Amino acid sequence: MSDILEVKDLVVSYGKIKAVKGISFTVGEGEVVSLIGTNGAGKTTTLRTISGLLRPTSGSIRFRGQDLTKVAPHDIVSLGLAHSPEGRRIFPKLSVEENLMLGAFSRKDKGIRADLDAAFELFPILQERRAQPAGTFSGGEQQMLAMGRAMMSKPQLLMLDEPSMGLSPLMMKRIMTTVTTLQEQGTTILLVEQNAQAALKRATKGYVLEVGTIVLSGTGSELLASDDVRKAYLGED
Ligand code: ATP
């Protein structure tokens, strides 16, 4: 598997506080890579830095060999990285379809309509309610919309920040099943989650982040079987 994303010795600070303290990881073509860790571990900071919304203090981020650390966020989207943010950040007053179309802002090709249909196929509720204001959606439906919107940029790498947050077990299962579906359709995924069980079950590879440092890495099944992960993240004695 060739790596499409390579993060090396990444340090990200807020003023004097280092939130990410020199992490390195890779995402190979076709993989689902999970970054897990508790509140404040630096997961969101890492994704926001890859997307160009934050700038690193040091270290490199290479996407297909190109350094992203000086590229503007909208150009990073055009290069093929999409970010479904923590908290979803949908536009509540815009319709479902308008929200989806915003995901395609960087595209000039003729395939946008077909991808809108693909998003509707992935999440039929979005089609049923395409004309309604997105603010009327439940948390789970908003998560579907956020993922659908990210897919509208036709990404080579989809980054999902805590898609399961605040969802019922059933809705969480639905969202996580979609992660697998997207991978089967050829999308490479970087998944940030506090829900270690759900995230590692689907991961080809995982990294455990603790206060800005990667403390453990391995295949999803290796990490799920690890005593440290079971005790710290799966609530086992
Ligand atoms: P969560 O799951 O709670 O979002 P996380 O792993 O995504 O956690 P981050 O949000 O990346 O963690 O936060 C990492 C550290 O950086 C935390 O200590 C947090 O308090 C700090 N931090 C995050 N955003 C800011 C900010 N805008 N200004 C100052 N410190 C921040």
From TrEMBL:
PANTHER family: BRANCHED-CHAIN AMINO ACID TRANSPORT SYSTEM,ATP-BINDING PROTEIN, HIGH-AFFINITY BRANCHED-CHAIN AMINO ACID TRANSPORT ATP-BINDING PROTEIN LIVF
ABC transporter domain residues: 5-236
Stored SMART domains: AAA (SM00382)
UniProt entry tagged with the keyword Hydrolase: no
Protein name (database record): ABC transporter ATP-binding protein
A Pfam family it matches: ABC_tran
Signal peptide positions on this chain: none
The UniProt record lists the keyword Nucleotide-binding: yes
Gene Ontology molecular function terms on file: ATP binding
Keywords per UniProt: Amino-acid transport, ATP-binding, Nucleotide-binding, Transport
Organism (species): Phycicoccus sonneratiae
Record family assignment: Belongs to the ABC transporter superfamily.
